[in-house]
Amino acid sequence: MDKSEIFDTQTTFTELGLNESILADLDRLGFKHPTFIQSKLIPIALSGKDCLGQAKTGTGKTAAFALPALQMLKPGDAFAALILVPTRELAIQVAKEFRDLGGRTGLKAVPIYGGQPIRQQIPLLEGNPEIIVGTPGRIMDMRERRLLTYDHVRYAVLDEVDRMLDIGFRDDIRKILGGMRNHPQTVFVSATISDEIEKLARSYMRHPEKIVTVAKSLTVQQVAQSYLGVEPWDKRRLLLHLLRREEPGMTLVFCRTKKAVDDVTLYLSDKGIDAHAMHGDMYQRKRDQVMGRLRDGKLSVLVASDLAARGLDVDDITHVVNYDVPEDPEVYIHRIGRTARAGRHGIAWTFVCPDQGDLLTGIERLANIEIPRLEYSDFTPGPIPQAVVARRAEEAQRKAASAESKSRDIMATTKVDPADEAKFPGGVVPMLPPPKRLGGRLATRRR
């Protein structure tokens, strides 16, 4: 891994203006040089300016906005920082990162999110924490119950703004920011900054500085990635083959839908694999139980949806399987970032169906790498399902009928000069290329 593509090796954390207490924690955690987003955003935030920062997933954005807050706040500054995140798992992760980075500061960071009974979170707020990390819906709920106030917020951060807009938090964000009458210092961070995000940000900011970094993702560099070509009906069998053949450590399998999560989990369990599911329709208590087992190393395979696994921060995940290719390349980066934690290396496998080459290409462009193909000669594809055979036969028949109809129409409407009849048998002049041509495919790695 070329560190100069990720870290600003010409800069140290000391040069960014951080104090000795925070520098000691960074040294304890093994931080040597800041990433590019950190080296640019931290000085701006410490100066008190509003900031709009764009950087790829896996480039250290959380520390970029967390370290300034840890330095600017003092113990006893109740509700002084509010960090908004899109999901409950990310709220838990970001709060934990605040605690890890600020171990010597004496500041308290608590996660507040939906899906957990409010009575369990009330004591956290009654402790007057300095830093609140929460999802928009639960933050607004706590404020309406007068358990949380915006009056003392001096530092507001919106993390993963693009995701929050994608899942419908646009109006909630406006209500929360609009309810802060004291106009706190505001920081937006996002993997992508659309015109809509920038317009939203600037409507609540005062002369913000915009930062755009193009550094590679630390996640991408630390994960060995490969893809496996597979037909849709063979994906479950291929996953089982991988798990049995490779015997990976703790494995996280990503599916696109909740139904797929349940189906894959049931299939693996029936085949003797210790697999557990996690998605948004599960009760929070069940999700917490699964997460507890995962963190304790008592779970070998977790099958999850994207939203359920966002913010999942477990150091011992060794493999990630993209059972379904995500349509958004950024989601892929989020997924594989669940492995290669704490400086370790990880492995990511992606199942790609014949019609998904464009999705794979999009991922490669974003990550700026070529993902190699992985093949297993000992894996035997299953028979084509009868429903697929029937559908393909029907499609072929429909295409043939369409081509024949088009040919008849051409013959009926084509007028031929008598002088040309000797040149064209039957007097039919070809007006279009034939429906089928001789020739073959070019040999490429996309199948």
Give a short synopsis of this structure.
The protein is 41% helix and 14% strand. It is of the alpha/beta class. The protein starts with 19 loop residues before the first helix and ends in a 34-residue tail after the last helix.
Strand order of the largest sheet: 3-4-2-5-6-1-7
Catalogue the unreliable spans. Answer: none
Quantity of strands, as a count: 13
Q: Roughly what is the average pLDDT, rounded to an integer?
A: 86
Q: The biggest beta sheet, please?
A: 7 strands, parallel
Strand proportion, as a percent range, falls in 5-15%
CATH architecture of the largest domain, please?
A: 3-Layer(aba) Sandwich
| N-end to C-end Cα span | 30 Å
Q: Name the shape in a single word.
A: globular
Number of distinct helices = 17
The CATH homologous superfamily of the largest domain is termed: P-loop containing nucleotide triphosphate hydrolases
Overall structural class, as computed from helix and strand content, comes to alpha/beta
Helix content: 40-55%
Supply the CATH class of the largest domain: Alpha Beta
Q: List SSEs in N-to-C order.
A: HHEHEHEHEHEHHEHEHEHEHEHEHEHEHH
Radius of gyration: 27 Å
- CATH T-level fold name of the largest domain: Rossmann fold
Q: In the residues, how many domains can be counted?
A: 2
